[in-house]
Amino acid sequence: MNGEPKMTWGFAGIWNKTLETREERFPTPREHIWAGEMGGGYLDRYLKMKGIIPSNPHTPRTLRKFEAGNLMEWVVELILIRAGILKRTQEWVAYQYPTLLRVTGKLDFLAGGNPDWTKSKEFINSMNLPEFFSRASGSIIEYLSAAYPNGLKHIILETKSVSAMMWDRYEATGGADNHKMQIFHYLKAKDMHEGHLVYVSKDDLRIGEYGIYNPSPVERMYRADIEAMTEYVRSQTDPPMEQEILFDTDTGKFSKNWKVEYSAYLTMLYGYKTAAEYDEKYKKRVSQWNRVAARWINGAKMTAKNLDIILDIKTMFPILTNRSSLSG
């Protein structure tokens, strides 16, 4: 149209720049453990607690993934609010065993109670919500009001947005140990019995939910993690570096080590410039190892290339001396 500016513009560039300019928070010296770091590599955590600046700060892609996670968390929060059962969000809680380091963290949601379902429905109807949110919120209220007419038990919800591949993995395992320890911390700190890990698949919006309880066997992992970290910090001893490939004795499978691949000190500790460089080195190798190991276990005929791969396995894992040691 006449009189309009001639210079064009694009939405994508604005969007990406906005998401990628999130302020990077570098570590400062501390003597407490973040709940969200529990289950992670001890050496990475030790260096962060000493205030060592990472050699591999978050990439723009990682920052966008963080914001995608925040978006999914906002969706869950919105539905809890509309249903009238959100009690607290982003509450800081701390717990400390005698003589051990203090653990602190911020829970996602505390939900439950006995809302006025009629007011909740009226509130939703008065909002100009997108059709999906309105339909989802209405359905949730209808279900909860029918199933729990006397109100809902208070529980803690911890939401994680993940890829479809990781969602499938967590469905098979009931959740990741580090996530279990994180939500257990909130239960321990608030002296509550029940929390739920909620995984949302970013690819297809599937939701998986897994109960974590207090007391439960998770406390053994939780306390062992704190005890180990306390010993490293109090003795000023560097934890050992992570193995670059892992072997699971229960499954007999090899895998890449995410604690290496996503280390904030990947270059400083392991010499890889990027996570992609680590992945390129080991992704194909791990696949070959698992394929050949399966043939070896089953007594299949070994080719010369197969034997070279077996030698490669034994070089990195000297304890795997025969087929029985691989069988899990």
Tell me about this structure.
The chain is built from 13 helices and eight strands. With 328 residues, the protein is of the alpha/beta class. The chain folds into two domains: 26-235, Lambda Exonuclease, Chain A (Alpha-Beta Complex), CATH 3.90.320; 245-326, no CATH class. Helix 3 crosses helix 5, helix 7 packs across helix 8 (218-235) and helix 11 crosses helix 12 (304-316). The radius of gyration is 24 Å and the shape is globular. The protein starts with 10 loop residues before the first helix and ends with a helix.
Brief description of this entry?
49% of the residues lie in helices and 18% in strands. The chain has 328 residues and is an alpha/beta fold.
Q: According to CATH, what is the class of the largest domain?
A: Alpha Beta
Q: What's the number of domains?
A: 2
Q: So what's the overall shape?
A: globular
Largest pleated sheet: 6 strands, mixed
What is the fold-level CATH name, i.e. the topology of the largest domain?
Lambda Exonuclease, Chain A
Stretches where pLDDT falls below 50 for ≥5 residues? none
Named at the architecture level, the CATH assignment of the largest domain is Alpha-Beta Complex
Number of helices: 13
Order of helices and strands: HEHHEEHHEHHEEHEEHHHHH
Helical residues, percent: 40-55%
Number of E-state strands: 8
Separation of the first and last Cα atoms: 71 Å
Structural class: alpha/beta
As a whole number of angstroms, the C-alpha radius of gyration is 24 Å
Query: Strand share of the residues?
Result: 15-25%
> Residue-averaged pLDDT, rounded?
89
